[in-house]
Design goal:
The chain is mainly beta and about 350 residues long. It contains four helices and 21 strands. The protein folds into two domains: about 180 residues, Immunoglobulin-like; about 140 residues. Strands 11, 12, 15, 16, 17, 18, 19, 20 and 21 form a nine-stranded mixed beta sheet that branches. Strands 2, 3, 5, 8 and 9 form a five-stranded antiparallel beta sheet that branches. The chain has a four-stranded antiparallel beta sheet with strand order 6-7-13-14, with no helix packed on it.
Length: about 350
């Protein structure tokens, strides 16, 4: 009897050790368990989904500084997968994977293995990829805690000041990508058709933005001399809607804000760059009309408008997402003039 008891204890210890090793393996793979764990519902099927980031814009240009396939220093690319059952608002599974090597992040798909889903249902897989810190797996620029149906661009007050400073200097860490599968069905016996299986291996992620770039900005006083005192500048929208929330499942946008993230400028002797990522709905039925100027802050706030007869700049966004919209006077390197904004008394 004592021998049998020892055997039971030994087998129990082995099971606990095996469970610990499995948990450790899951942690090392940076993969979160699904919201509905398989053992809670034995009628599940294991599938593999693959999501590939496409860093090119729709016209073949690259929006990221230094090329479209580099990862900003201190960041890693996070890819979130959520699976939605037909007719259900909340995801039935969610996984995350991380990659800090650009060749792996952009050169091959994010593979989500052993995603377990209940048989006899129709599903859609939705993905979102963004940049987060290498030493922290938490949200940086986009709040994803409410799921991929409500990805929210964080308010300036919710982002670390040093992170904002390096971002405004041009590292493009706000860049992000999204995509989804077509609906696929798992039969009651757990099988899938070849057509539905193919849908799981061809999810392409692209930017849900237009990137507004002002590459050669110069702030001046009324005489045209470089403005001496303003240290923090931002794009300030006086009309139109700058959306803050993106539904990665439907491609719909909502929410609004009136300014870009700030940039700290040490000297206005030379020109500088401002940019902002603007959410664009997946289906753009009407042009997005925007009107903006620039504001500077150093104790007080100064408004700067463009041109010899200072006025706001008006834009009409008419193209689908995933492109760069550059607003400029001329290229300084070619002997032309930057985009000049004058202080308004």
């Amino acid at each position: 009897m004592k021998t049998m008891d020892r055997n039971r204890k030994y087998r129990g210890m082995c099971r606990m050790l095996l469970l610990g090793l499995l948990c450790l393996a899951s942690s090392c793979n940076n993969e979160l368990l699904p919201i509905i764990e398989p053992e809670e519902n034995p009628n599940t099927t294991s599938i593999t989904l693959k999501a590939m980031v496409d860093a090119d814009t729709q016209d073949g240009a690259l929006t990221r500084a230094g090329g479209g396939e580099n990862i900003p220093t201190g960041y890693q690319l996070r890819c979130i997968l959520e699976v939605y059952a037909d007719g259900v608002n909340n995801p039935v599974a969610r996984y995350e994977k991380y990659e800090s090597n650009a060749d792996d992040a952009f050169g091959q798909p994010f593979a989500f293995d052993n995603v377990r889903l209940t048989a006899g249902n129709t599903y859609m897989a939705v993905c979102w990829a963004d940049y987060i810190k290498t030493d922290n797996d938490g949200d940086v620029f986009y709040n994803t805690t409410n799921g991929l149906t409500a990805v929210v661009q964080k308010a300036e007050s919710s982002i670390n000041a040093s992170t904002l400073a390096t971002t405004a200097a041009g590292d493009d860490a706000e860049d992000a990508y999204t995509g989804k599968s077509a609906s696929f069905t798992i039969a009651a016996d757990g099988s899938m058709s070849g057509e539905d299986q193919a849908k799981l291996w061809g999810i392409t992620l692209r930017r849900p933005f237009a990137k507004l770039v002002l590459p050669w900005v110069k702030l001046c006083d009324n005489s045209g001399s470089a403005y001496p005192s303003q240290q923090t500048v931002r794009i300030n929208y006086v009309s139109g809607t700058v959306y803050t929330t993106y539904n990665a499942k439907t491609g719909e946008v909502s929410g609004s804000k009136t300014t870009s993230y700030p940039r700290t400028i040490s000297s206005f002797t030379n020109s500088f760059e401002l940019y902002q990522y603007l959410f664009i709905p997946a289906t753009l039925t009407d042009a997005i009309e925007l009107e903006f100027n620039i504001t500077g802050e150093n104790g007080g706030t100064t408004t700067f408008k463009h041109g010899d007869t200072p006025a706001n700049i008006k834009l009409s966004l008419t193209k689908p997402a995933n492109y760069v919209l550059t607003v400029k006077g001329a290229t300084e390197n070619s002997g032309g003039y930057p985009l000049i904004f004058k202080a308004i008394p």
